[in-house]
Amino acid sequence: MSKDQLIVGLEIGTSKICAVVGEARSDGTIRILGVGHAPSRGVRKGEIVDFETAGKCIREALVDAEEKSDVLIASVYLGVTGAHIESFNNRGAINLPEERGEICAEDFEEVQASASEVSIPSQNSFLHSILQHYYVDGQAGVLNPVGLLGNKLEADFHIIHGATKRIQNSVRCVKEVGPEVREVVFNPVASAQVVLDENQKSLGALVVDMGGGTTDFVVYVDGALKQSGSLPIGGDHMTNDISLGLRIPMGRAEALKVEEGSVLLGVSPPGERIVLKDETGFAGKEIEREMLNAIVHCRARETLELLKRQIDESYLPYLGAGLMLTGGCSQLDGIDQLAEEIFGMPVHRTRARAVAGLTSAFEDPIYSTAIGLIKYAAAIQPERPASLLKRVLGRLSFLWMWMF
Amino acid sequence: MIPLARNLPSHAPQDVRLAIVGLGGAGSTALDRVLLDGLAGADFVALNTDTQALTGSIASEKIQLGRVATRGLGAGGDPDIGYAATEEAVAEIRAALEGAHVVFLCVGLGGGTGSGGARLVASLAREMGAQVVAVATLPFTFEGHRRMLQAEEALAALQREADVTICFENDRMGDAVSPLAGIQEAFAVADQTISQSVRALAALTRRRGLMHLGFDELATALRSPGTAAPRCLFGHGEADGDNRANDALTRALKNPLMDRGRLLDDVPNVLVNVAGGPDMTLNEVQILMEALNRHIGDDSRILFGVAVDPQMGEKMSVTILGALPGDAAVAATAAVRHGARAVEPRPSPRRVEPQPAADEEPRYAFAAAPREAAAPLDVEPVLLHVAAHSPPPAPALKRTEAKQEQMELDPVKRGRFERSEPTIVDGQDLDVPTFLRRNVKVK
Known about the structure:
The complex is a heterodimer. Helices cover 37% and strands 31% of the residues of chain A. Chain A is α/β, with parallel strands linked by helices. Chain A has a 6-stranded mixed β-sheet, sandwiched between helices. A 5-stranded mixed β-sheet of chain A has the order 14-13-12-17-18, sandwiched between helices. A 4-stranded antiparallel β-sheet of chain A has the order 7-10-8-9. The longest helix of chain A has 22 residues, at 289-310. Chain A is globular, with a radius of gyration of 23 Å. By secondary structure, chain B is an alpha/beta fold. In chain B, α3 packs parallel to α5 (113-127) and α5 runs parallel beside α6 (145-161).
């Protein structure tokens, strides 16, 4: 089997680092071979703050993934996030030469280049430019312009850019550990690949990936990615709030959030208390459940409200499929109800879909991004001429084996 | 053929006479800062009731207010005493402002001398035929509700008298300072911002530009329809080096009153002045304006000016000014309160000799522009005082409560984000637990 069909998605999260090894099949499906993860240290708000420690954690996660999938990881698709990442939409346009008239595949690259001719801050570099729509001679709704006749080809692109140095930090950190980084992908773009199906994309949907350090989002309207971004607030903040509010250590606050936390107010009987057990199992401090929920509620509500403000209002009526919540924080009790109240649209908790293999892996929303990286990589792979060639060679070798 | 030199200044820049006046304690401190930062060819006048503070000032001219009314002590936080004290020194103030074309009045509102005397000094300066630019600061919310009320009242009065009023909210200054910085540093930053704005505006009124911006544009930019207390956006950045256009803009947008350019979107009139040495290229100006345009809303009018100043050397600077439709609720109450106090309509003398900065244009009495007392209340959301989910108290009260937490009295509250870069959105450090910022009671 050709090695090139193996894809590794690596997400350096604030709470955990996970590496997913997957296999892109020729029929377009994806099979998960193994998932390795390690608790993350040295990462705050989605960005590496302690290079050495983060490097150790990445190694741990990669080794774990190698052991579980029995694959040697040579290169990864790296997911990045952080408040420094920004996005905007831009239209590129080219005039086709008079004598030709017919649009060919090369013109597409030219349009893409023309759309990227915008000034972004000098310290930033482009991450993605994702196609939204084509226009041929001003006519909208062209799905594939290749082969059409026209004088002018235009295309809308969603352009994502981020601080070069910060992205380089993540890339360098992975390279120090060993594997090559094949491509850097903005996390929510990856998550959306597995959280949404084509139908939901064309209906319009908002994907919110509530992670440990950041809350990332993408907006799909009419099948095209319209907006994306990242808020530097996440589950880490919730844990921190609990830890400060109840005066308990971070580790215990985290466990309390996961096991008992809820964003719903007024549902627990008044005066209900939770007994905090210490490591040895002895009953220790008692706290009121409503108090814990109030702390979690405040943070969750604020985060979602800030998020709503970030999203272009004009898109909100076009999100027919509603809001898809994913990421670790989407497991919080009642967060879908809260989001429904704030956004006024149906909210679904989702996780990766349309993949085969280790079901336990993609049943958990915390792996959405890492699995999404594989889907993303599989989608762009045919565009890479080198890998295509190798795939053909791979087929030939298979034939060779079959003949003898 | 004789080439026509385009950049030949038609007026020597120095023929606009500036007077910088610092009134009251905060005003004098700001004045000292302007002096220390250096502004050539301006008269500096310090006015204060407190003799001790006045002696400490480094201004060239000092006038003691209220020899009789306060006998060399402060005004004790009472604007009426401040007004009386200023009234005593009218003759001296007149003498000091003689011949000035533009008067910059730096004043900290909320106390006695500043709140009481500001409108009087402004009206005196106008009577003398000068254009008055008032640079006022509002107190921190934690200084108390009463003080804020006094300040807002004084601001409304000042806006009637001055041609241009730039208002800095001390609460917003907190954004510029890291939450761990000492209080002294926080105040120093406030003074620096004021000094920077005075110097930038002084340069604006004096410099003869290729595309000139005058006093009239300044007034237009700062006029905001329908509100008594427009929130002023101000940003000034200077940079040199290869990437100076972008760097200058980034610095200008970093200003605490700018909120990284996010608020610019809602400003109806934006004044942008770009200045640089003779080697500034058109391309650089283009890059800068393109980058800036992304922050400015489509409906906004841009008042654009370019000036070449040999003194800038290799530097390039950009000044951005605008007024945000303010907190309508507060504005309305301030207007009502002010109406009860019945201030006589100010005499409006027409200046006889126009100065190069603002010629034939009529005076812009923008503060007296018609106000809608019942402006819609939901102008606010732009400012992201994230709406409290607890039962909403009266608007004015809510404002106070929401801002109370901005002062980091207890830095421990950031927990594990102690040493990380703070995430600040509209004056709130998001790393501080939400329940603390919103005063949700947790035992």
